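Is iron/sulfur cluster placement plausible here? Inputs below.
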Amino acid sequence: MGRTLSSPEQAAAWMKEQARALGLDAVGIARAGPTPDADQFRAALAAGRLAGVPYLDERVAERCDPRLLVPGARSVVVVAMGYADARPPRPDGPHLQVARYAARRDYHNPMIKKLRSLRRRQREAWPGSDAYVAADTGAVLERAWAQQAGLGWVGKNTMLLSTRLGSYTVLGSMVTTVELAPDAPGTDHCGTCTACLTACPTGALVAPHVLDARRCITTHTVENPGDDVAADAPPFHGWVFGCDVCQEVCPWADRGTANAALPARADLAFLPVKGLTTLDAAELIPSLAGTPLARAKVKGLIRNARARPRS
Ligand code: B12
Ligand code: SF4
Ligand code: SF4
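Reply from A.M.:
I modeled the complex. Tokens:
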């Protein structure tokens, strides 16, 4: 390895260097322990605010304490990749909008591959060490840990916001047995602003930092595996997959850059209503392969488009 990693400070510096070399845009470190905001997570579950989002009621103990994921865990490394590139102009004619994270290469694979490489390098540097890696689908409350690891703060819209990268970021984490010097937690810069609370078209942001997922357009357009839109779904206000309104109005959101591993698909940013609602016009929809839209398939997009698309 050619250099001493005997102190937590040296180990942390090494880990960050490796993460950046792997193409991750931000990296921070927290001490492993009970999850900050675990109480908020349990309260959201108990109040039913997360109904409609699959799997969140599983592995609750692990979400509330990542030390249960890896025996002997000492640190949580949190990483981010940005996707804040310019949104293409709205084309002529009636179109429905796709959230920015979805009109590009799906982040799950690139993120998890980078984290696995980081873990491999860690195991070479510290033989016998172990780690759990996660991106979105793992049992880690990623935004709480991102704030704790100094990447930014959880805004009133519940997004992780960064003064450098904004909020068009995706997160990943590695819970590790290696002791790494922690960063200072991120500090709140929302101040007196309430733009997101006012702008949410469905009233899903019911209070600062509190999102009722039952009213969020993303829950109903992305997380619903069924053939029909739920009877209690809100109108989708021109969105066909995901929603970015609470970020579009945020003064901090759009500061970052886009990671080269997450190239945009400009042809998917707006989808023609005709292709989604007219029988046999599905060929107007570009290929969804390799993007988050592939999970919904054209069938899922048609379902979303037919459900009160313009409120
Ligand atoms: C379930 C889920 C959703 C649900 C619910 C989201 C929610 N806010 O609860 C739905 C389907 C609605 C959703 C939507 C979106 N999601 Co989502 N989602 C997740 C997932 C899988 C779990 C989040 C979770 O546990 N939520 C439960 C709540 C309680 O926890 P939380 O969201 O972290 O909320 C924190 C704070 O709000 C605070 N808090 C909660 N209540 C209260 C109350 C008070 C009083 C206080 C002070 C604090 C507080 O505590 C929590 C921890 O810090 C994570 C991945 C992961 N494993 O963490 C991705 C994730 C959060 N989603 C992500 C993204 C990109 C989105 C969308 C932007 C996609 C889109 N464009 O459509 C939207 C954004 C909507 C929004 N404003 O949050 C990214 C966020 C990246 C970032 N920069 O923040 C994540 C991290 C995925 C990833 N790996 O990148 N998502
Ligand atoms: S994603 Fe859209 S619907 Fe969901 S909270 Fe944000 S603005 Fe509201
Ligand atoms: S819009 Fe304002 S209140 Fe909402 S997250 Fe951004 S800075 Fe915070």
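Short version: The radius of gyration is 20 Å.
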